[in-house]
Amino acid sequence: MRRMMAAIGAAAALAGLISAAGPATASAGAACRTAPTALGALPGTEVAWPKEGVRALGRGNLSVGSSRGKAVYWTGTTVHRVPVPDSRAESELLGVNQRGLMVGRYRPYGTTTQVGFTYRAGDASVTELPGGAQWGGDLDVNDSGRVVAGGYGDRTIRVYADGALERTLTLPEELGPDTYVYTVGGINSRGDVVATVQKVEPDTGGRVEHSYPVLWPGDEGPAQILPQAGGGGNTSWVAGIAADGTIVGSDWYGPGYEWTPWVWSAPLGTPGSSPGRLSTHPYASLDGVSPTTGVAVGAARSHPDDAGNGADQAVLWPGSGPMLALPRLAAGQASEAVAVSDDDRAGGSAVNASGATRAVVWTCASRQAYLPS
């Protein structure tokens, strides 16, 4: 009975967020702050993976992610655990749409494969996606309820609608046979899908790989290979796609741990450009974009062995102008943002004064963002 009452309470809480009156906004539900808000955590000890933090933002004050290595969602700062079938499994939520449909993955205990699922607040259990466990498990969902799923090593990407497989996206033939999915960046409201595809170059005398950002249009047109960030040669990550087709990501040079934020602007076909970095850090990445407003978020970064520039710091790029910093949870401690909503919230992770990683949300994020002196 206690579990049933908790499920009813969670459903009621989410129903309060999604009403016939339309979406509640962050500013309507809470006063603007000058620092990130730390969200609740599950009991237990912090784990290294899945990392404690917000992964995506829904309507009102709904956010999703992981806590203590388990899939969770938050209503405000209150944390709710998602009932995956295996209580010992590592799990996390990776996306949520404006209708409250969440997507995530769990890794059954003792295995190396991921099971993708959907979930709504108050459901007694998750709904597993067709196809069984996969080696990789990147997922996203758009507001029409379409779910994109794929992951490291896959030769195809799958799009589901109403729980059934709708499309199978194949890798561009012109890249040749030795290609595979590296990461799935996301799906926008039109059904456009972006991913990072890795290609093994033949006849090099060793294993040499290059990455390619790829777009699959929602109208089922042919896949489009985007120009590599920074002129190619490094890893060109894609992290998200907005409704107008704008894609954000990063150029990464592995040996030097060098990150350059990158934007491919619609209409696509040009190499794109970088919005720059913070003056306080040598590198930065873009790790999420809002559905329609063109705001992107990420982190200002330094090499892990170089403490001279300080800890990583969450950043916000308004869509034009310079990169801006988001306030830390505690002075000198690391933070990162990976999600941003149309109602000016950003979400991610931050380390508190005690050294613990917490899931955080920046409300009125653009008003908190600042240009470091």
Report on the architecture of this protein.
With 373 residues, this protein is mostly beta strands. It has three helices and 29 strands. It has helices at 2-17, 26-29, 365-368, and strands spanning 18-19, 22-23, 37-38, 53-57, 62-67, 70-75, 78-81, 90-96, 102-107, 115-119, 127-128, 138-141, 147-150, 156-161, 164-170, 179-187, 193-201, 208-216, 224-225, 235-241, 247-253, 258-264, 283-289, 296-301, 313-317, 324-325, 335-340, 346-351, 357-362. A four-stranded antiparallel beta sheet has the order 3-29-28-27, with no helix packed on it. Strands 4-5-6-7 form a four-stranded antiparallel beta sheet, with helices on one face. Strands 8-9-10-11 form a four-stranded antiparallel beta sheet, with no helix packed on it. Strand 20 (235-241) and strand 21 form a beta hairpin. The chain is globular.
Question: What features would you highlight for this structure?
Answer:
single chain; mainly beta; four-stranded antiparallel β-sheet; about 5% helix; about 40% strand; disordered N terminus
